[in-house]
Amino acid sequence: MGLFDSIRKAFSVDDAIETARNQRQNHASITVETLYPAQTVPTVQSEEIDKPQNDITVGVEAEISHTYSETETETETETETETETETETETETETETESQSQLDSGLDETKKSWASRWQHFIANFRSVDEDFFDDLEETLIKADVGAATALQLTDELRDEVKLQNAKSKQAVSEVILEKLVNHYEAQGINEDTAMHFAQNGPTVILFVGVNGVGKTTTIGKLAARYKGEGKKVLLAAGDTFRAGATQQLQVWGERDGVEVVAGAPNSDPASVVYDGVRAAIDQQADILFVDTAGRLQNNVNLMQELEKMKRIISRELPEQPAEVLLVLDATTGQNALQQAKLFKDSTDVTGIVLTKLDGTAKGGIILPIRNELHLPVKWIGLGEQVNDLQPFVANDFAKSLFGQLLEIRDGD
After folding, report:
1. What is the CATH number of domain 108-191?
2. Region Disordered: start and end of each range (predicted)?
């Protein structure tokens, strides 16, 4: 079953929770019936012989009783273990439901925009001709999937619509949505969305991006997350030029209860990074998050500074940094795509953090980022709270984004 079919046929998580609860309530209790051997009444002639036999019988009864008692205890333990397992499963299911609900809420503006554009496009459908495909391409571009991606999809759909002989509004809608979902799914093949950590020694994660995209906030949220998982975390304030950048990171450090390695204002960022790496090694930290400056007006200097930081990190920790995460502001739409191209061409970006998705209708920018740049989106920001920064799960995102379009189509 493909992603398109799984979105259509996705079962309700609430039903799964209810089923788990019913199974736990209907779990049959096991009753063990203890059987004791019948006692014999000794005769006068056999009194002396029977007496020790009675002692043996009592001993056997005691042993049997002890054995059954152990069996009952083991049965109760097994039942409790099964109950605990069901409870854990139910808790995990409820957590997944909460996460999906949070994703749905965070993508609300994007979904409304997609739904509005889709309804307008389908309402104007008359026949499958060149005007139809021009309108489709325009609709996709306005949905922030990018010109290159929109053109590619439109060309593919020309052949697909003819191949499936789709003529009615519902049939054409079905073909387009299935192609869109399948195209999205194909982008994720061999996509590495996992975070990578060093097996020995500190893991260094470098954050890059222009000013105002949420680098420092993202660092603060991830620091809180990993500290909550029991990791020892350090922060390095490598953005020494922007006014207030170091103070902002220090506020997050105080809030999270983690140390921030900082230098004097306008000091060499590479020296701060060096101090941060040495502190991480000396304190046996698990993770060092490094904030960096983001000034597009000095592209050459900025990229040279980043390369200098990476050289210093690699000199002290040869296999680091493990991640270079590019932070993008989803509200900037196509500008975010251009920033991603710039940084990818200038440094070894390993993944994307897409912030502020909850405040924009331009969440569709994820499609061209994955399609044109082949960069994995690793985290998405859905709000101001710490737990609003979530790992990017491609299928969950597709279910949330495209599911409403399928409902609109099925409701026609």
Report:
1. 1.20.120.140
2. 63-108
Whole-number percent of the chain with pLDDT over 90: 30
* Residue 293 annotated as binding site: yes
- Is 262 one of the annotated binding-site residues? no
**How many residues does the structure list for the chain?**
412
To 5 degrees, how large is the angle CA 377–CA 380–CA 386? 140
Cβ atoms of 285 and 232 closer than 8 Å:
yes
> Does the annotation place 355 within a ligand binding site?
yes
> What are the pLDDT digits (tens) for 222-238?
999 999 999 999 999 99
Residue percentage of the chain with pLDDT more than 70: 72
Q: What type of residue sits at position 395?
A: N
Domain extents in the chain: 14-24+43-106, 108-191, 203-392
324 annotated binding-site participant: no
DSSP assigned state of 41: P
276 is an annotated ligand-binding site residue: no
75 labeled part of a ligand binding site: no
- Is 214 known as a binding-site position? yes
The side-by-side arrangement of strands in the sheet containing 259-261 is: 259-261, 233-237, 287-291, 203-208, 323-329, 351-355, 377-381, 389-391
Same fold, 108-191 and 203-392: no
258 is in an annotated binding site: no
CB 354 within 8 A of CB 330: yes
295 is in an annotated binding site: yes
* CB neighbourhood size of 316 (10 A): 17
Give the pLDDT confidence of 341-360 residue by residue, as tens digits: 888 887 889 999 999 988 77
Distance CA 175, CA 168 (A): 11
Q: What is the pLDDT of residues 308-320, one digit of tens each?
A: 999 999 999 999 9
| 292 in a known ligand binding site | yes
Write phi, then psi, for 146 (nearest 5 degrees): 90, 145
Q: Is 357 annotated as ligand-binding? A: yes
DSSP character string of 29-76: PP-PPP--PPP-PPPSTTHHHHHHHHHHHHHHHHHHHHHHHHHHHHHH
Token pair belonging to 362 = 């331009």
Flag whether 399 is marked binding: no
55 is in an annotated binding site: no
215 has binding-site annotation: yes
Q: Could you give the CA distance from residue 169 to residue 174 in angstroms, rounded to a whole number?
A: 9
The C-alpha angle with vertex 298 and arms to 296 and 303, in degrees rounded to 5, equals 85
212 is in an annotated binding site: yes
